[in-house]
Amino acid sequence: MRRTGLATLGPALIALLALPAGAQVSEEALRSISTPDKVETSLGTLEFKDGAPSVATAEKVHDALHFTRALNAYNDSFRGASAYAIREGFHSIGAEDNNSVLIFSELMDANSLFLTGNADTIYYLATLDLTNGPMVIEQPSGGLGAFNDMWFSWVIDVGFPGPVRGLGGRYLIAGPGYDGPLPEGGYFVAHSRTHHVLYAVRAFIENGSDPKPAVEKVKANLKFYPYAPGSWGTPIAEALEGTLRLAAEPTIPELKFIEATGVSFNTIPPSDYGFFEMINANVQNKPPRATTSSSPASSPPSASCTASPSSRTSG
Fold first, then answer.
1. Which pLDDT tens digit goes with each residue over 281-311?
2. What's the average pLDDT block by block, 10 residues per block, for the chain (315 residues)?
3. Which helix (H) or strand (E) holds 214?
4. Is the distance from CB of 259 to CB of 89 less than 8 angstroms?
């Protein structure tokens, strides 16, 4: 059997060896896989020797790649830089996370720098820090706004477009990784992918041109305070199961309102190298899964609405 196989292969091997060298690869194919000595590109002339780039060519291509990656980072991360700059701007005039609200009682003007602000509604703005647990926000009636995370990804709507439908109610915002108790009802519950959250709402001027009634309603009814597991919204039956203890309603601290009309401060990120320093600071301050490989905002956080009519606030 072995001799028969060799005898069969013999003529084929002889015929193959008899072919002229290189007959199976055309000149056109060789040219298509070869590197020319010079290539004219948008970067200029790139020079090669035996397929290897010159020092000048290698440096030119590296510079182009670095610029492209920097441009991609700028475009993909601008929302993160904007959110970070807003929080830094608030802090620069004395606002603190969880207990301060900037309010434009006499409307916004050119003293403060915002990317998309307008001068005909009453803005009230704040930042939350969820590092130590969820925060409760008692939202007055009316208004239009949203909670956003530090990549400017939507968390939950506030006011007329949100689940409160402009009637007012309690929001509970939990941070990344929070797996503690949550109420069964009474709150609009949402989860942020970042520990810090932006709160931005506008109130509308009622009955003409006087903003005072809307401002007074916000100041009288808006409240921020930490969520107390086992408090309002937790049924007694859950405590009887032994999973948590019932808790009294938390003491609600006084909210500090900072007048922003006529105040000079900046919320716009820089366009120089400081932009990348700002993005780095934002990234270092967030949990590992706060962004995705494709885009900081490619997948939304989760939100669930578990409020009841009794959760509506006055005003």
1. 999 887 766 654 444 443 444 445 444 433 3
2. 48 51 76 90 93 94 95 94 97 96 95 92 96 95 94 94 86 92 88 96 86 94 89 66 72 94 96 94 78 43 45 41
3. helix 212-221
4. no
- CATH class of segment(s) 76-284+298-311: mainly beta
CA distance linking residue 266 with residue 275, whole number of Å: 14
CA-nearest of 269, 295, 94, 96 to 196 is 96
Determine the number of helices (DSSP H) and then strands (DSSP E) in the chain.
6, 16
Q: Is the CB of residue 291 less than 8 Å from the CB of residue 151?
A: yes
- How far apart (Å, rounded) are the C-alpha atoms in residues 190 and 302? 6
Q: Are 155 and 303 in contact (CB under 8 A)?
A: yes
H helix or E strand, kind and range, residue 39 = strand 38-41
- Amino acid 308: pLDDT: 40
Q: Which residue(s) pair with 126 in the sheet?
A: 199
Nearest to 124 by CA among 190, 192, 199, 221: 199
Residue identified by tokens 């993160």 is: 80
Residue given tokens 């001068």 in the structure block: 119
Give the three-class secondary structure for 277: helix
Report the distance separating Cα 169 and Cα 158, nearest Å. 10
Alpha-carbon distance of 309 to 170, in angstroms, equals: 10
How many CB atoms sit inside 10 A of residue 73's CB? 14
Residue 133's pLDDT is 93
301 DSSP 8-state letter: P
Domain range list for the chain: 76-284+298-311
Distances (CA, A) of 120 to 126, 183, 203, 215: 19, 38, 10, 13
Q: Looking up tokens 């931005």, which residue turns up?
A: 200
